[in-house]
Amino acid sequence: MDLRTILVEDEETSREILRNYLTKYCPGVNIVGEAANVDEALKLIRNNELDLVFLDVEMPKGNAFDLLEQVGNRTFETVFVTAYNQYAIDALNSHASYYLLKPVSIDELIKAVDYVIEIKQKENDLENRVLTTSTIDKQGKITVPVQDGFEVVSVNTILYCKADDNYTQIFMVDGSKKLISKTLKYFEEALDSFGFARIHKSYLVNLNEIVGYKKGKGGSVVMSAGNEIMVSASQKAKLLAHFQ
What whole-number distance in Å separates Cα of residue 164 and Cα of residue 181? Predict the structure, then answer.
């Protein structure tokens, strides 16, 4: 598993040692940036999707706890690397994954990285189970993956779905929309028992939200929000059968 990582340490020598140790002994770590103070670290965190941050406590322009407070809700793990053991309780209260004392022990560093990999793998396994095998529940809801987790959506709030390469745009009854990293085929199967129909290679519609039909080779349906969506000729008979 590849951990996208940054090193936050004001001493250049300490950064170099940690970088060399990680490169040599922890091949699963991908260092995407380094910072010497809180401001630099905050910029890196906001501009990258990270799995892990190695974090010194005392730095110019604030300390590690100031940084984490500014970050707010975070999705990455933290490993504190410091010469001072008096911060251990504060690190624990900040949900640190590991606490390393300088000079850094290679064995302890490897343990820290392995522990974070284990955490991330468990998170990924849990998310994959939620987003695949338990997609539908009996109350007519589905879970849809979003960038920072998943949302639970009532199927009756979905107006229609539109294919967008390997993504799907979900258009909601309230006018909002969501871009989901799943194919339209995925949603066709997930919504099969909830009154949705594939009317075109690019469209899956909520039959309960259709308010009209316009004739043509395939014709088109008019949705409750006023949207007019083309029906492919091959799907026309199947669609009209729902309204007989």
Answer: 9
**Protein fold of 137-241:** OB fold (Dihydrolipoamide Acetyltransferase, E2P) (2.40.50)
| Model confidence pLDDT, tens digit, residues 48-86 | 989 999 999 888 778 888 898 888 778 789 999 988 888
Burial class (CB in 10 A: 0-12, 13-18, 19+), 129: exposed
What does the DSSP 8-state code read for residue 75?
Answer: -
Which residue has 């959506």 as its token pair? 153
* pTM confidence score: 0.57
Residues 6 or more apart whose Cβ sits within 8 Å of residue 226: none
Q: What are the domain boundaries of the chain?
A: 3-130, 137-241
Judge contact between 229 and 223, C-beta under 8 A.
Answer: yes
Nearest to 175 by CA among 187, 157, 162: 157
